[in-house]
Design goal:
Length: 510
């Protein structure tokens, strides 16, 4: 009831704001205009409220789709225009000019669409998808068990097999053949206890009856989980070493396609823009993100492929298989270690990356975010999967955002590294600060040379323009050996060589 009263009040305020904004541009003073249109506007407000109530515009629930909310708004507001116009015609009242009446309603409708979309987004964000369900397959009651069983236990196996068949039938009907086959094949390949659940709460994982499972399958989307890392950590704790976890998620690319396919042009792009701002920008803006998570609790969030896999790696898993099925990302991961429990995962626009500096000490390199959140945990996985391209960068790196690729070409992402320069952790010319993964790709001799001096903002890469990893290592070896003999002279020489290549040869780091 309180929610409905708040919606009614805020909606009528929107209409009043629309009236004042539009009458501001009419000739005459506001006082004269208000006195002229006061009765007419009062009638409009009453009709607006009655039409909205009749068409259930204020009864927004958690289960309402945004499309149904839009339909109610449009129907009730068109009804308002028609009724007021009919009232003016029948009673021969000169309440409004037709243009002003239509302008007020249309302007208020546009504001309403944004406002009610936001309300719907908040309500559906705190909605848990369906009831939690669970099904367990014990190792001694598996349908493919080979050892002979007592008669009573055999009947239990038969019941379990029927239940298992019904579960897989539901998966087949709901998710299709490909998803069914993926889950079915992995579940039946595991020799041990398997748990199939449909839950978005960490509690239901922790409270599972067995201490350890060899496979856990969750049929709920990761997007519906409140605290994703805590959920993954709970799954990790319930899996035996090498155990499998199978799940699914909707990526932001798939979400965009779904929204654009759901609505007609140009409304689809309008709603996608609103969705992009609310679900992707707000969670990353300081202060606003606190309000966002306060209202939504992180439910129904927008996730990238890199973030989903990165979170899994940070929680002690490695990817066995990932596949796109029916506009969803299905993943099969294996437990390889305990979770890392990162205290301050990088999520905002300014990030701190651990890099190896002088004397082999780690320090935080400041950069603008060019990758999706949690992408830093995927460096080894992406390297093994895609290898390197010309210039030493990872080929087809899905972790890099569209905006991030532009920022890299313009060096905008590296501007915060000036903080490291002022702190004395880096110098102007020097080898690039490396992560532990990249550092371990280098020869031991080059590793020892690297940690004898500070890393730099302008690496020798821009002076020599190497293409392969071996050429990059040769370039750095050459610079470091020369730098040992003539530090200042070498840095000045490499600075102007890099400057020349950047200006005249348009050298860029991808």
């Amino acid at each position: 009831m309180k929610q409905r009263i708040l919606l009614i009040f805020s909606d009528l305020v929107l209409v009043i704001i629309s009236f004042f904004l539009l009458t501001y541009y009419l000739p005459g003073t506001w006082i004269s205009l208000i006195s002229k249109y006061f009765l007419a506007f009062l009638i409009l407000l009453v009709v607006w409220y009655l039409s909205s109530s009749f068409n259930l515009k204020y009864r927004i629930t958690k289960t309402d789709s945004i499309l149904s909310v839009i339909k109610r708004i449009l129907i009730s507001n068109i009804t308002t225009i028609a009724f007021v116009a009919l009232l003016m015609f029948v009673l021969k009242l000169s309440l409004f000019s037709r243009k002003l009446l239509v302008a007020i309603v249309v302007f208020a409708t546009i504001i309403e669409l944004f406002y009610f979309y936001f309300i719907n987004a908040i309500l559906t964000s705190v909605l848990v998808d369906g009831d939690d369900e669970s099904f367990v397959i014990r190792h001694d009651t598996r349908p493919d068990a080979k050892e002979p069983l007592p008669l009573l236990q055999e009947s239990l196996v038969s019941a379990k097999k029927k239940k298992l068949d019904s579960i897989f039938l539901e998966i087949l009907q709901e998710s299709g053949t490909k998803a069914h086959d993926l889950i079915h094949n992995y579940v039946l390949s595991v020799s041990g206890d398997v748990r199939i659940v449909s839950t978005s709460t960490r509690f239901n994982i922790i409270s599972l009856d067995l201490e350890q499972y060899n496979c856990i399958v969750n049929l709920q989307r990761v997007n519906s989980i409140k605290r994703i890392n805590k959920f993954f950590e709970a799954v990790n704790s319930k899996l035996s070493p090498g155990g499998l976890f199978i799940g699914k998620a909707e990526t932001y690319v798939m979400r965009k396609a779904r929204i654009l396919d759901k609505f007609l042009f140009p409304f689809n792009y309008l709603f996608y823009t609103i969705d992009f701002v609310i679900k992707r920008i707000w969670p990353k803006v300081p202060i606003i993100n606190k309000l966002y998570f306060l209202f939504t609790h992180g439910n129904n969030r927008v996730l990238s492929r890199a973030e989903v896999l990165g979170r899994l790696y940070s929680c002690g898993f490695e990817v066995v298989e990932e596949i796109f099925i029916n506009k969803e990302l299905y993943f099969v991961v294996r437990k390889i270690k305990e979770p890392l429990f990162p205290e301050n995962p990088t999520y905002g626009p300014l990030i701190k990356l651990k890099r190896i500096g002088k004397e082999g000490k780690y320090f935080n390199v400041y950069k603008m975010r060019t990758m999706h959140p949690y992408a830093e945990y995927l460096q080894g996985y992406v390297f093994d999967k895609n290898h390197l391209e010309v210039g030493g960068k990872i080929k087809d790196d899905f972790r890099v955002t569209t905006l991030g690729s532009i920022m890299r070409k313009l060096w905008i992402d590296e501007l915060p590294m000036l903080i490291n320069l002022f702190k004395g952790e880096m110098k102007i010319v020097g080898v690039r600060p490396l992560s532990a993964h990249y550092y371990n790709l280098y020869s031991e001799e080059l590793q020892q040379l690297r940690i004898r001096s500070k890393p730099g903002l302008v690496p020798p890469f821009y002076a020599d323009l190497p293409k392969t990893l071996d050429e990059i290592m040769d370039s750095e070896m050459k610079y470091l050996l020369e730098h040992q003999k003539h530090p200042l002279k070498t840095d000045i020489k490499y600075f102007f060589m890099a400057f020349k290549n950047i200006i005249f040869k348009h050298a860029r780091s991808n």
